[in-house]
Amino acid sequence: MGIKPLGDRVVMKALEEKEETTESGIVLPESAKEKPQEGEIVAVGEGKKLDNGDRVDLDVTTGDRVIYGKYAGTEIEFEGEEYLVISEKDVLAVIE
Amino acid sequence: MGIKPLGDRVVMKALEEKEETTESGIVLPESAKEKPQEGEIVAVGEGKKLDNGDRVDLDVTTGDRVIYGKYAGTEIEFEGEEYLVISEKDVLAVIE
Amino acid sequence: MGIKPLGDRVVMKALEEKEETTESGIVLPESAKEKPQEGEIVAVGEGKKLDNGDRVDLDVTTGDRVIYGKYAGTEIEFEGEEYLVISEKDVLAVIE
Amino acid sequence: MGIKPLGDRVVMKALEEKEETTESGIVLPESAKEKPQEGEIVAVGEGKKLDNGDRVDLDVTTGDRVIYGKYAGTEIEFEGEEYLVISEKDVLAVIE
Amino acid sequence: MGIKPLGDRVVMKALEEKEETTESGIVLPESAKEKPQEGEIVAVGEGKKLDNGDRVDLDVTTGDRVIYGKYAGTEIEFEGEEYLVISEKDVLAVIE
Amino acid sequence: MGIKPLGDRVVMKALEEKEETTESGIVLPESAKEKPQEGEIVAVGEGKKLDNGDRVDLDVTTGDRVIYGKYAGTEIEFEGEEYLVISEKDVLAVIE
Amino acid sequence: MGIKPLGDRVVMKALEEKEETTESGIVLPESAKEKPQEGEIVAVGEGKKLDNGDRVDLDVTTGDRVIYGKYAGTEIEFEGEEYLVISEKDVLAVIE
Questions:
Q1: Which of E8, E15, F52, F93 fits E48 for a cystine, CB–CB 3.0-4.6 Å?
Q2: Looking at the complex, does the CB of residue B67 fall below 8 Å from at least one CB of chain C?
Q3: Where are the beta strands (DSSP E) in D1-96?
């Protein structure tokens, strides 16, 4: 991927929810769907830089499927795709 | 369980309150019931990572029944079930 | 008691104010009474855990009668009784 | 006094302002008087506890007449008298 | 002066602005004048106390004429005079 | 460039989005376009100064194309051009 | 200059924007002009004082032309002239 996040940030691709139609078959418009909370990490930073220059390694890595808070991070568009740049501390959990 | 919380977080399953009918026998709709404040911990993180890479062990563990504040944590849905991801510092007490 | 508070928290039982009738004999409804600010401590945590794993001992202990701020702490219900879970730093004073 | 404040707190008795009548002799109702900003300290805590267990001594002591900010502290009632529990850092000055 | 400020605070006497009449001779009522931002320091604290008991000396001293922000500090009345108690960090500059 | 940012700040030139006309050929007025989130760094500070006088080196350098949050930084005008002065910690990622 | 700012503050004289008339020759009233963001430093403090008494040297000095945020600092009037007292950390960049 062509984006390198800084510090303790990761770049994530939100995993689309599959149920786009209701049980009665009605297709839900985009705005009626809940924001996804699952994503796949596509790029990771080098970790928080300490004052002495050392880095704190991240606990997540590229390819991890993770759960994150609904309102965390910054949405960006890159080469026509939407991503979420988020600090690792706002990643709640890894799906194993 | 398939979710591994990060850092000092735990994943909790809220314990449903039993009284779903009032004394006069009326069934309370979901919205009229108080949010539960008791839960069972189903997964725990490795503990807060210090700048030197060490971890601070958690005081709670999987299987603990705990009490937490009404507005703490982030609700998530995983494989059709609802969970609460919460920082250990927002867990108020353990039921022994 | 069956509740073990975490960290620097204590569990308290509010001490009911006695004057439930006014001088003219009128019984005051619950909402017209001031929230009590005195309580008896029924359980204490092990104290704040430091990054090195040590604990900072609490200054209060089970059985202490204490004064606390009106808006501090989290009300919980446990086995049909109401308690207040409160951080020791929000306990103002001990009644001797 | 029967109250022992915790940490860096002190218990204070507000000094009543004397001018309860205006120059024209009208008695001012309680609500029209400014909140007093002077008090006499009636009890002091042992000082802020540091993580290593040491205490930071207070700069004020019982009997000191002090000036404090109008909105600082928590009003409590104890044995029928009103007091103010206030952190020493909200005490502005000592009257010598 | 009979007031000893605590910690890093100073007591200041606001310097009255002299132009109490406009150019056309109209006397401005008190509320139409800007709050003064200049004052003379009449008492100083012993400086911020560090956790080890040491003090950080103040950079200002009694008699200094200083400039301060319009909304900083707490106004007090002492022996019929109005003063401002202000933390040294809210004193912007000294007039030399 | 004639501007030297202080501390951990960088000066950035926003990269204009190219699609100024909609698919139907309508030219979008300035206000209807999203604020760009990509920029090119044109000047960098010496890094955050620590209390001991040392500097923490920046992770970005002049010429880097970066992504930043929509509401971060301060817009300035210099010699007729618009720039954004932004703290490095608000730079989300570098485009490689 | 007769003002000595305290700590990490500097005193600045805003540089007036020159275009006081529009292209059509209309003179703009003061309120319709943007607040300037450029200034010249006329006095500097001795730098932030650390708890051990040491100072952190400032990165700017008297005579520097600097850029600052629109809403930073405190406006003061001194001997009939208007100045801005601003913390060095709110100075964005130096114009070289």
A1: E8
A2: yes
A3: 3-5, 9-14, 38-44, 48-49, 55-56, 65-68, 74-78, 81-87, 91-95
